Amino acid sequence: MAILSVVGRETTSPLVIVSRTKMSAGHVCIGAFDVENKKNVRLLTSSGSQQPEEVPLDIGKVVIATYISTSPSIKAPHTEDVRLLSFSDHSNAKEILEKFGEICPVIVGSIEDTFSGALSRDGSNSYSVREENVPNHSVCFWRTDDRLVLDQGYQQRFGKIKYSYGNGFARVGIPFVGFQDAINVIPAGTVVRLSLARWWRPDNADYPDKRCQLQLSGWFI
Prior knowledge:
By secondary structure, the chain is mainly beta. It has two domains: 3-103, CATH 2.40.50.140; 107-220, no CATH class. 8% of the residues lie in helices and 41% in strands. It has a six-stranded mixed sheet, with no helix packed on it. Strands 2-3-4-8-6 form a five-stranded mixed beta barrel. A four-stranded antiparallel sheet has the order 15-14-13-16, with helices on one face. Strand 10 (120-121) and strand 11 (127-130) form a beta hairpin. It is globular, with a radius of gyration of 17 Å. It comes from Rhodovulum bhavnagarense.
């Protein structure tokens, strides 16, 4: 597994909040895009833990933030982790949001073109990244080449949201972990945010290796 050494460096830049996803124990994962440095960041607290649910950082909010990378060993692909030291509302948020589509990089093509081609399909009809092929990032924006369809049966059985990509035997499920209200169909051509979950090992002897499962964090229609 790749490990990247990081030298702590304080950065102050405009950030657009692009995702807010559910974590355990009343925490949320906050994703943002650094407008000046043109990169994705994941905003941890100043102590390096996940943000509490009450943090006032919602999708579409623009802030001036100061953050720092302080971990001596960040394990790829989760290289976006930074510690948020302070933030305040940006006075020119409207203009930044109007230009955001021109600034933010979006991948065009098949879903398998995302994450440097490192996604592999497993026996549960989902995509994940394995230890033998790890990209250097865990977040990307992708313009869907096919529609994503809400799996209503899965939602009824498990109370969780998952979208299906592809058809028949080629169909793959992508769990949705954001706070947006589910819609039945995310049309082809929609820009979505994809992310890779933290490393985990399935409780299944048939799949003994660690992996990062592909997740859908949100969409922009």
